[in-house]
Design a protein that fits this description.
The protein is mainly α. Helix content is about 55%, strand content about 0%. The two termini are about 35 Å apart.
């Protein structure tokens, strides 16, 4: 499958950028109201299938080897 490239304008005037941020905030609010419980259930079922491993300090247990 070929890679699709989308072009998104990323250089805006400050007022335009603020308008986009306000729109995204409102969109997040509306989507959370409409789908918040469904999204939370998705996260719960994902956590049940792939539980987070906790190390002795109480944080996430990472087993990635870091090579320098």
């Amino acid at each position: 499958m070929p890679l699709k490239i989308n072009h998104l304008q990323t250089h805006w005037h400050a007022a335009d950028a603020e308008l986009i941020i306000d729109f995204l905030d409102e969109l997040r609010h509306v989507l959370c109201q409409a789908y918040g419980e469904d999204i939370a259930e998705l996260h719960r079922s994902d956590e049940e299938q792939n539980p987070l491993q906790i190390d002795e300090s109480g944080g996430p247990a990472f087993d990635d080897q870091i090579e320098f």
